[in-house]
Structure prediction request, 102 residues.
Amino acid sequence: MPPAGYGAHAAAQATGLSVYRTLRAGLRPFGVRGATPYSGPTDTPAFDTLPPPRLAPAAIARAVVRAPVEGLEEVPEGDVATDLGERLLLNPNAVERELAPD
Prediction:
């Protein structure tokens, strides 16, 4: 989840997650598998204003390739995504408050 001010990016990620889950469910009976990658800020111009760490796009690509081999459907890649995913499961409202601007 990007910080406040990156609402369009967050909305696009949420939409992607919904589409991936729907496709997986619909295609599963035909033996088709897929994975949803998650990452924190990537090392791209869109996130230049954010402090490190930023994840190299190649790391996300490796996670997508690795996921089906390991039988994973949702793949957090990098420390930011892993930490945030764990905290969101525990208390999503606390994470929302933490990321809100002062």
